[in-house]
Amino acid sequence: MNLNKYEAVFILDIRKVDDEGEAFSKELAELIKSFGGEMIESISMGRKQFAREIGKRKAGIYWNYIFTLPADKADDIRKKFKLDDRLVRSLVLQYDRPE
């Protein structure tokens, strides 16, 4: 099975998470594992103010993830969290930084 490396940034709604996103991170790691991938790194970047309000929200909790997944499962991650009300924004990209 061919695994691709991905990087994802999720901005969590401060009002919807009460543990700075720890539970969300564990849920994402379990989902990736269930798809046959592996979480390499999850970094909390903390609370940050937005330059402009996003849906009446002035700040969010930023998380950066690096993980591997089978190529056909990346869209499943995007779809799963597209309607999640804990997220303000999300971005999943193929990881292409040099080692």
CATH class: Alpha Beta
Q: Which class best fits the helix and strand makeup? A: alpha+beta
What portion of residues is helical?
10-25%
How do the helices and strands follow one another from N- to C-terminus? Answer: EHEEHE
Global morphology = globular
Report on the architecture of this protein.
A four-stranded antiparallel β-sheet has the order 2-3-1-4. With 99 residues, the chain is α+β, with helices and mostly antiparallel strands. Helices cover 22% and strands 51% of the residues. The protein has a single domain (3-94), classed as Alpha-Beta Plaits. The mean pLDDT is 92. The protein contains two helices and four strands; from the N terminus they run βαββαβ.
